[in-house]
Amino acid sequence: MDAHPPPAGSPTLHLLYGLVGSGKSTLARRLEAEGPAVRLTLDEWMMRTHPGLALEDPAYGERATELRGLLGELAEQVLRTGADVVLDWNCWSRQRRAEAIAGARRAGAEVVLHRLTTSLEESTRRARARQEAGAAFAHAVDAAGNSHLAGLLEEPSEDEGLRLVVHR
Prior knowledge:
By secondary structure, the protein is an alpha/beta fold. The chain has helices spanning 24-34, 42-49, 58-80, 94-106, 120-132, 143-152, and strands at 12-17, 37-41, 84-90, 110-116, 163-167. The radius of gyration is 16 Å and the shape is globular.
């Protein structure tokens, strides 16, 4: 745990963790409204700045990494104003969380990780339904893709310097 947590009343950086279709963006919108908070959604920014770039394209990962870096810098600026921020993308690895936590600490913010526990089957069903409904800024995912992601997820822990909130 961080030896020097931010003082009470500090802004909060909200991170999300869960499978595609687990409800991360729905929760992000709710946190934005309740905060109030600034929501930065990677999928929206990717689809707007790189229209037509498919998730399977080898360049996608590189572009997404660049964009996450820019959005992370923007998040720090917003946190310094005292406002909360929701990073609406999957913080599935300890490294990705560590980068976000470091930025939040530089801005004097606390960090909350929201862990969504929706099952693989239900997450995949929701993602498919969202895609079939033509939802804007939503990537297509199948059971194999979500299963692959499930194998990459690194379980979060409060010893990373964040507060963990589990959503069942």
